[in-house]
Each structure stands twice: as structure tokens, then as C-alpha cells.
Amino acid sequence: MNYEELLETRDARKTNKIRLPYGFFYKRLIDGKYSNFVEFHDELADNILFNECVRRQCDALGSVKNKHQLHFTPNQEDEGIYALAVEPGNYITFEQLLNDSPSVVARKDFLESTIRDLVEMAHELHEKDIQYLCFAPSNILVRKTDNSVRLLLHGSFFLPLKMQESVYDGLEDYIAPEVMANGTADSRSDVYSLGRFIAYLYESSGVPFELKHVLTKATAEAPEDRYATVDAMLGAMTARKNLRRSVTLGIAAVAIALIVMGIFFEAVPNTEPVEFVKPVKEPINEDLLDEGFDPLTELGPDADSATIARAIQEYMRNDSDKVDEKKIREFEAKAEQIFRKQYSAAADQILSKIYNNERMNNTEKNFQASSAEVMKELVKKQEELSSKSSISGEKAQRIASEIIEQITEKKKAALEAKAKEKEQEKNNQE
Question: Are the C-beta atoms of 178 and 185 separated by less than 8 Å?
Fold first, then answer.
């Protein structure tokens, strides 16, 4: 007896029958070994049409080689097929797995691999015009050794019975409306049922924001409003997850900066008064752009980036015959220098909003909230100045990040010095 058989024997002694929509799954001792059986409900076993549906399904599934499909052999008596002998293995329902081990959903990739495996299986079945129809937790089996999903009987084979209400009693929420209403089904019916199952997976923690739209579309009442295939649904889920990951990476630097500033805020109770830098009020007049004007030597220190940009355009228009790359690079360097000065002044003024007595006396939570608003303002100012200059948005973002870091470090150093000075005064008084 190997290890898996030992586990089966041990578990069979304490396992009761597991209820499935069409019967009870359990282990039966035959010739000293436990075998898997599904015993059909009496009203189904006595139905001649149901017997035909089971035979037809057994023949059709012989060509399905996917590991997530459980194979079986009908057990027949004179009255008809009363049970199925299912391939070896130790299985429980998905519902039972989560009841016994709810923490399994927190394991890395468990939810993603479960959804991916079911989509893969459904895709293969749909190519053979087979639909599972009921992806309810109590109608999906799981192999206990690795928690991988298994499917057994597929609902589309039982559509001719016109007994959906009795077969799927209590599981109606997981079945597409058109199946329950008139016994019709296609791949979109599985999109609906699988969407309901995915929502069930996130029931305890809440459906992630990026998946809500996908699941709403997947479980639409009308089939034409859903995704056409399970692959399209999975593709939409993946795309939205990737989009969220990109956005998360984009704000990661800001989040880290806020955390560092919050920690620093707790360590330094007071700050020095802020000296604001006056912004440039007037740009250079248009008449400075007359012929023969060289912005590199005549613009002066108070020119803004917009003036530099116009100067470059005018230079290239009036002197197109003698424009060279070196001159353009000089213009761009001047534009970058002006952008640095303008953004430094703006950033210093904006950051000062969270470095004052009122803010420093707030709680860390309030400080973090204020910091978030300040960071939004810094980004807005960077985009505003960048759009008026001749430098690229990417370069502007890099320069802005450098300036924010420099100003923050400067203010932190000043705060530390001020705190030490006050502490020294206090010690001297004592």
C-alpha cells in the first residue's frame, strides 16, 4: 500500500457521504480496497432518460484527457444505472475544503491557479460543445493531496431531462438564468456560473476593485451582455490586474516617501519658520525675440521655461539654415535650468504646508493625509511646468523627484538642528 492509498484508507474510515447535486459521493470497501462511488438519487436512477444521458456522457468524456476531468464507469442493474465507479483518488468538495481549511485561500497563487485550471478545463469542454453549467462549490471536487480541482458530471448532458429545478435544488444562484428558465445553454452559461464561483472565492475578503466590473459583466442576466467565452473573461481579469499593478508601481515611490516623512514627523516635534521663495511674476517680453537675440546670453536668471521654449521655436524658424544640434542642446540645458529653478521654488512652498507648528502637532494619521494632498499638488505643478517648457515629461518627472528629495532632506536637517538646539537650551536651563 502506497502513501496515497494509506491516506485514502484512513480518511475513508471517518468520511461520511458527500452530497452532490445528483447523488452522494463516498468510498466503498471492495476486496480490501476503498473505491470511489457516486450513488444517484432515487428519482434520477429510476429515470430511463437519465440513464441514457449518463451513458452518452461516459462515451463523450472518454476523449477528454485533461487531468481535471474525473473519469468513471456506470454501475448498472436490471432497473438501470444506479451508481458510478469513479477513478481512484482522495477527493472532497471545494465547499468542504474551505470549511475545513479556510486559510487555504491565503496561500500564494491558490485562487489564481484554481480559476486558471477551471477556465482551461471549460475551454476544452466548450470545444466539444459540452458545458458544466454548475460551478457551485458543492459541485466541484478537490484532490486532497494538492487541492487541485476536479470535475465529474457535466450539466449540459442532462438538459433533455427538464429537471433542472430538482437536480440543482439550492444551487440556483450558480446557474445561468436561461438554463433554469428554458433549458438552453452555451459557453456564456458557463461564463455566468464561473463568474458566480469566482465571486464566492472572494466572499470572505471582498471582491478586488479591479475585478468588480469583470464579474458584473460575466454574471449579467442576458447572455449577450456577458463575455462570449471563459477565455475572454480570464483575459479581462488579467488585463485589469496588470493595470492595477502598473498604477501601484507608479505610486510606490510616493507611498514610501510618505511613510518616511511620517516616521520622521514622529521623531521631530518642532520645526523652524519657513522662508518662502517668491515666484517669478513677469515673463520676458515678446520683443526680446527680435532678430539677433540670443536667449542663452540675454534671457537672464528670471526667465521661465515657456519663454525658453518660444525662444527655441523662434530661433529655429528665423535661422533654420544655420540650426545645429549643439545650439539646440544649449537651449534645452537653459530650459532645464529654468525648470529646476521654477519647480524648486514651487516645491519648497508646497512642502512647507506640512512643515509648520499646526501640522507638526497633528497625529501621524492626519500628517499622512496632508502629505498625500501635498504630493498630488507637487505632481500637478510638475505637469503644469513641464507642459509649458521644451523638456520632456519623463525628464521633468526625474528632475522633480530629485528636487523633492533634496528639499525634504534639507528641511529634515533643519528640523533636527532646531530640535537639538531647543533640547540644549532646555538642558542649560535645568
Answer: yes
Per-residue DSSP letter, 90: -
**Which residues does residue 143 pair with via DSSP β-bridges, in sequence order?**
91, 148
Q: Enumerate the β-bridge partners of residue 75.
A: 83
Residue written as grid cell 447572455: 223
CB 284 within 8 A of CB 299: yes
How far apart are the two ends of the chain, measured CA to CA in Å? Answer: 82
Per-residue confidence of the chain (430 residues) as pLDDT tens digits?
Answer: 454 555 555 454 445 789 999 999 999 887 778 899 999 999 888 899 999 999 999 999 999 999 999 999 999 887 789 999 999 999 999 999 999 998 898 888 899 999 999 999 999 999 999 999 999 999 999 999 999 999 999 999 999 988 778 788 889 999 999 999 989 999 999 999 999 999 999 887 888 888 999 999 999 999 999 999 999 999 999 888 877 554 444 444 444 555 555 555 555 554 444 444 444 444 444 443 444 444 444 444 445 555 555 555 555 555 444 555 676 677 778 778 888 888 899 988 888 877 665 555 555 556 556 677 888 888 888 888 877 766 777 788 888 888 888 888 887 778 778 878 887 887 887 6
Q: How far apart are alpha carbons 236 and 408 in whole angstroms?
A: 41
- Side chain identity at 378, as an amino acid letter? L
Rounded to two decimals, the pTM is 0.57
DSSP secondary structure string, 15-61? --PEEETTEEEEEEEETTEEEEEEEEPHHHHT-HHHHHHHHHHHHHG
